[in-house]
Amino acid sequence: MNIYPTPRLLVLLALSVPVALGVGIFAPGVWAWVPLVAGLCFVAALLDGLFAPVGEGLTFQMSAPETLGVGRTVEVPFTARFTRWRQPGLIELRLGLGRVLAASEYPRRLVRQDGAFGGTLSLKATARGRGEIEAGFVRWQGFAGLVYVQKKLTLDHEIVVTPDIHGVEQDAADLFSLDNIYGVRVQNQLYNGSEYHALREYDASQDHRRIDWRSSARHMKLFSREYQAERNHHIVLAYDTGRLMGEPLAGLKRLDRAIYAGLLLGYTALKIGDNVRTFAFASKPYHVAPAVTGIHGFNALKYQLSALEDTPEESNHTLALADLNAKVARRSLIILFSDFIDEISADLMVESLNRLSKKHLVLFVAFKDEVVEDLMTRPPVEPEDVTKAVFAKRLSDQRERVFAQLRRQGVEVLETPTELLATSIVSKYLALKRADRL
Where is each DUF58 domain found (predicted)? Predict the structure, then answer.
């Protein structure tokens, strides 16, 4: 427990210096009182600290969660209480939050209500990893307001920040509640796929183009073919974990947003009946996982993606995509989460994707940077704003030329607003499946 002066005491001490000089110059006869007054101020501060509320009777209660999805905000109530009879009317609180939880907000000044000091910590994680709430620093003033009393409370709360599994479950529930998800509900598999399922007796509600004339002639009765969505497609989630993927986008790293989108797509694909495998690279490939199947394989997919971390290395698309092309023999839908700065840095990536697209269906997920768009559309106020808008426009045009080149090579390009990235990827996957392109 530490005791130190408040601004009020420091101001009194600062004012005492010119007063003492004035007394010494204009009234030297009363100079003997100056040390006495200074001594009284010192004694008053000492007594204020002595009779201040006692810190040994301070307790702090907070029930922080053990895990938290990245990007989510959880309200955690906390209470500080003095068990001794001397209690302050106002305390100031500072929590020792780790880097991962540094964006969390909470009230810094707490007023006593019903004998306790209560507040709510808006706990928010900006990156995956281990977040710590190491300590709480509480201070209060003495009754005269001349000194602060500060006490450090050891909390040692550790929170594991994972991909936002709860958000994936919510979005997946919303998607699977729609009637246009192919292959999820039995009644929606009819007439909407490419795989022959069974014969059924024809009635007027069916499309006459589904009539199987050979079987109808053999049974002397009209029969129609029933189709369902083709299953057992192969999906590869390829992650670039290089330097650019560690840059923040709307408060979260690009890699964290890509992992969330991959989990949502993986859950949908496994639910429908397709296979999903993961691949990751930076300066070289370092993660190749076997394919998982069935909805029970989602747990394995979750652990695989949770282990991915961004690195400060530059990405080597040529080596990584060549290795991926060699390891994946069966035609697959390869979804590449990556980013680039300009045409020059994208040349090797475009060439590698061209070779990969000759064998597989490739979906390149582009991260739309709202900051660049804002620089282009914001009305200029200063000359620097014009320069920023010109460079932003040039960067945007270069990216569009790269996207156009990828589309000419047969690569699907998806660029959507940040908040719609995950659901847009799932919608694109379902559209490709419906069009029999997988």
Answer: 199-386
